[in-house]
Amino acid sequence: MSRIRVRPQVVEAVMRVPYVSARTDGAMMGRTYMFAMWLDETQGSFDWRRDLTAENINAFAAANLVTHAQGTVNTYRSTLMRVKRGGQIVTPVGKRTEARRAYTSMEFEVIERTIDVAGSEGEDWKVHLALSGGAGLRPEEIPYAHASWVHEGPSGTFIRVPNKKGTYRDVPLLGRFAETIRNAARRNEGTYLFCPELRGRANALSYMKRKIRGMHPSIVDYDVTRARHYWISRMLDAAVPATLIAEIADIHAGAHLLADLLSEMPRPDLDESFAALAAAGLSD
Question: How far, CA to CA in Å, does 178 sit from each of 101, 114, 131, 183?
Answer without folding.
Answer: 25, 19, 10, 9
